[in-house]
User: What shape does this take?
Amino acid sequence: MLKEKSGIDLYGSLIQGHKRFVAEIQRAIEKDLTFAVFIECTEKEFVAKKFKGGYRLKTKSKVLRKIIDTFMERYPIEFVWCKDRDDLRKKMCLWFVSEIKELEHPSINCNCPSCAEITYLQGL
Assistant: This one.
């Protein structure tokens, strides 16, 4: 399962929509789905609230850092921090491709054309 969020969206999910976000993660776990959240800002920018709309938010940076760390410890969730929208798209594509590769070819040393393309894309 994949979620795309801006910095302000993630903040809302972690602070205001915490229960709903946790319920969504738990449903994904129950269905044995891999869960990743792609965020359109870097981790450093997020914690410092240096994203669009972040300047008016009240939660302190230390608290945001702790919430992110707790989520990653408690749930099998991957936060993928991206510099901008182009970086986000590239990382999403690579994530999907690697998930497909893992499902189709769990062998690390696979040399099929699909896996060769993944290796090429990861080098970009």
Notes: The chain has a mean pLDDT of 84. The chain has two domains: 1-83, 85-124. The helical segments are 7-14, 18-30, 43-47, 61-74, 85-104, 113-122. The first strand starts at residue 2 and ends at 5.
